Amino acid sequence: MxxxxxxxxxxxxxxxxxxxxxxxxxxxxxxxxxxDSDAYDAVLSQALDSASREIEAHCNRQxxxxxxxxxxxxxxxxxxxxxxxxxxxxxxxxxxxxSGFSIPWDTADYRLRPLNGVVDGKSGxxxxxxxxxxxxxYRLDRxxxxxxxxxxxxxxxxxxxxxxxxMAAETFAIKDAPFGVAGMDQFGVVRVRxxxxxxxxxxxxxxxxxxxx
Length: 213
Prior knowledge:
Strand content: 15-25%
Low-confidence stretches: 1-14, 179-188
Distance between the termini: 20 Å
Shape: elongated
Strand order of the largest sheet: 5-4-8-2-1-9
Radius of gyration: 19 Å
């Protein structure tokens, strides 16, 4: 298994904490008895948030879409590549290396993976690795890499949305437990590993953890 990259974040992150399904989608998923009432909207919203954060913890990535570029710093995996967090577009992309990240890379200096945003024959995946090209001018060193990008996924993958609905509905079902939904820990009582259907849907999206430096 390749070494895990380290990340040092700078700047703020926008639009990164929204749930992976809407309140309306959850109410439709749960049926008419819930759909026609707003009595449980607050609890349902909490369940969506809890399920979404649990999905992030399980997959070691988040699936929302940041529309603002921010800079993050990474340690190199080798002299020729670095794992980075998912980013969904090359618009606004800046890659820098060297002491003080003073060396900007041209597009000829690197390639992004996965190629064409395709993994296992399925399109729509974000970029998650920066590779120095053999014809490029630079290699990665002890200073690592600074990447400025729009982080996240262009859209939430349907299996992730479905897993969120499954887990949020299950979370809502235990609303009468002691302390209620609001009393859950930060990732929620309902775990992905305990729900076979959600676990199966999320399986292809699990990545190695990116350690916070």
